[in-house]
Design brief:
Blueprint (H helix, E strand, L loop, with lengths): L7 H19 L4 H6 L7 H12 L1 H10 L7 H11 L5 H40 L11 E7 L5 E4 L27
Antiparallel strand pairs: 1-2
Helix pairs in contact: 1-5, 4-5
Length: 183
């Protein structure tokens, strides 16, 4: 609902939901619980964040943080976002975005460059194999069994793919019938 159409109960409900999310994220990690998990296992905090992502709550928080008309929730959203990043240091977050991605990007760039060089070499090799000028001469073919003027066979000067559409009238101008003689 737009903020103009909201009732007082709706505003209180939104605030209570934001406070509930904040309080859930504010729960400190239990060291005993964290020790029982496997090394690569996600912590309770990470699983809560994943549940928020699956439910779409992170998109709602982004909307509340960026919408101009929803500024009354800005401090609640800021507090929730700070609790989301509670266990991470800024250095880890910055390295996370560039560490593996930067190495993969460099590797992908090298791989694309080698593929591009190989493709250019193949293109040059194909260009050297074919003649440089295109011959428009498609060949001449003698159609045996089909007589032309006199007793000679028809000589066909077009490509073989045009043979099926051959008629004796090919290339002739159709005879025009005057308009007053047309049927």
């Amino acid at each position: 609902q737009d903020w103009e159409q909201r009732q007082e109960e709706d505003t209180l409900l939104i605030e209570r939901i934001l406070l509930l999310v904040r309080n859930v994220l504010h729960v400190p990690p239990d060291p005993a619980e964290e020790q029982h998990g496997v090394d690569g296992d996600a912590s309770v905090h990470d699983r809560v964040l994943w549940a928020l992502h699956i439910s779409g709550m992170d998109d709602l928080l982004k909307f509340l943080a960026s919408a101009q008309v929803e500024q009354q929730w800005a401090l609640h959203v800021l507090e929730i976002i700070s609790l989301m990043f509670r266990d991470q240091s800024p250095e880890e977050l910055a390295a996370l975005g560039q560490g593996t991605a930067g190495a993969e990007h460099g590797e992908d760039t090298r791989e694309l460059e080698t593929l591009r060089q190989r493709e250019l070499a193949e293109k040059r090799a194909r260009a050297l194999q074919r003649p440089s000028r295109h011959s428009r001469f498609g060949g001449s073919y003698v159609l045996q069994g089909l007589k032309s003027i006199g007793d000679r066979d028809v000589v066909f000067h077009k490509g073989l793919h045009n043979l099926k559409s051959y008629t004796h009238d090919l290339g002739k101008e159709p005879r025009r019938v005057p308009r007053h003689r047309q049927a």
